Amino acid sequence: MKYAIIAAGEGSRLAQEGISRPKPLVELNGEPMIERLMRIFHQNGAEEIVVIVNRLHPETEAFVKELSEKHADWNITIEVQTTPSSMHSFAVLAPHLADDPFCLTTVDTIFREEDFEAYIKAFHRALQEGYDGCMAVTDFVDDEKPLYVGTDDEMNVDGFYDTYEPRLKFISGGIYALTPKAIETLHVCMKEGRSRMRNFQRALIEDGQRLKAYLFPKILDVDHAADIAKAEAFLKS
């Protein structure tokens, strides 16, 4: 199984709020976010870790290359490109992910390690049951523009929604465990000029892919300077 990290954002909001480091290098309890993700992925059986970083932040590229030399067994592949959106970044990574099940997330998605380990195990069970993917969801809402996830009583995903409805219990956690079949959907999205990861997720449903939702007790994103302290406290709790 492969793992992929989108770390190509500009981190403009953090910079405006006085954080000088690029977002991937922001430390949580003394560990850079991108290194934390790679460590966790390696511990969960990563055969390869593929990451895209922004060309505008050469210090991030240098850090990832240093990690690759320091941890040769992590098998890190790096793409350096400035892209207009996360979905475009995903498209850059896609050729590396077309032959194995994979897990994709953005660099600022924060979760507890034990919850992630259980999620990956759930993904493998879902594959055995004929599903095409396992999407992380949470009922903890701390997002400026959450993507609501519709599910049935057995946690089968039936849709993704921008607007809240009473039946919608969960939001997307921004972690996607998928099969190479999803890459075909991504190519169609790119060809049609769709943007944003949430539209890719909708396209998965439109294509008839079977997706299971897996509930995380809590997932945070680091978008603002104040989120750093929140994330550190969450991981310590």
Mean pLDDT over the full residue set: 96
How far do the termini sit from each other? 30 Å
- What's the CATH class label? Alpha Beta
Per DSSP, what share of the residues sits in E-state strands of 2 or more residues?
A: 25-35%
Largest sheet: 9 strands, mixed
Gyration radius from CA atoms, angstroms: 17 Å
Predict the CATH topology: Spore Coat Polysaccharide Biosynthesis Protein SpsA, Chain A
Shape, principal axes of CA atoms: globular
What is the ordering of alpha helices and beta strands? EHEEHEHEHEEHEEEEHHEEH
As a percent range, the share of helical residues equals 25-40%
What's the helix count?
8
Structural class: alpha/beta
Please state the second-level CATH architecture: Alpha-Beta Complex
The fourth-level CATH homologous superfamily is: Spore Coat Polysaccharide Biosynthesis Protein SpsA, Chain A
User: Number of DSSP strands?
Assistant: 13
When the domains are counted, the total is: 1
Uncertain runs are none
Summarize the structure.
By secondary structure, the protein is of the alpha/beta class. The chain is built from 8 helices and 13 strands.
Can you put this structure into words, describing what you see?
It is globular, with a radius of gyration of 17 Å. Strands 1, 4, 5, 6, 8, 9, 10, 11 and 12 form a 9-stranded mixed β-sheet that branches. A two-stranded antiparallel ribbon has the order 2-3. Strands 7-13 form a two-stranded antiparallel sheet. The model has no long low-confidence stretch (mean pLDDT 96). It is α/β, with parallel strands linked by helices and 237 residues long. The chain has a single domain, classed as Alpha-Beta Complex (Spore Coat Polysaccharide Biosynthesis Protein SpsA, Chain A), CATH 3.90.550.10. Strand 9 and strand 10 form a beta hairpin. Helix 4 crosses helix 6 and helix 6 crosses helix 7. It starts with a strand and ends with a helix. The protein is built from 8 helices and 13 strands.
